[in-house]
Automatic annotation (TrEMBL):
Region (Disordered): 1-24
SMART domains per the UniProt record, alphabetical: ZnF_C2HC (SM00343)
One example GO MF annotation: zinc ion binding
Organism domain of life: Eukaryota
Protein name, as recorded: CCHC-type domain-containing protein
Domain CCHC-type: 156-172, 174-190
Amino acid sequence: MASEMAGARQCPREGGTRVVTMPPPKEHFFNVRTPPGTSVHEVIDAIEALSVQHHGGFDFQVGVNSIGADQVLLETGGLSLGTITVPLVPVARQVASVTCLYLPCYVPDNEVVTGLKSYGTTLKIEEARYKDRPIFVPEPVGGHRATFEYRGVRRLCRRCNLEGHFKVECDTPHCARCGVFGHRTDSCTQPCRRRGGAHAARKTYSMAAAMDVDQFPALGATPAIGQTQRRLTTLRPAKRPKPSDG
């Protein structure tokens, strides 16, 4: 694959000895996909680059020569090309500090490592206490609903897991028919999740076969005049025939 290079390394000579400068670390390189028609010179002008390599098509790999330029790219997260900003993807693995909140103290550290395994490798765990109550993101860890705080975290409600509000002011309707947030029970048309009928799951015969009343009356209450007392229906085991004598 043909490639174009800009910003070649210099190799000065001192006393007849050739001195080769060391290449920058992998953490100083980023992959970027530019709009159609973008040239190498436009990418060089948009960044304090040590090198720009064209990987074919719209893909480029840029490298910076200082930690300051690297931090600027990590904080901005994009490369400005005229009026368009394209995202940058770091080549090396990035280290992020993640804070875990609302996790019981008796949960071991290995459960936390297991809960975060799908997101990356946990390098170390430090314990700390915070006076304030920051906003969180729920995540199951060892059967507990823990929360994590990090840069760029999505602000979610602890009740409905939706953005834009907190639990104390949450008014998102919850459907008792399908068990999800976002709509009321009387407007839900989902079939029963147990039997597939047109009734709600809590009206399934396997759950309501032991009773045939809408609600239980108070103990010792006398039915009003003209009101019919509904009888409680229970399921009893079938009688087994006794073995005949002789």
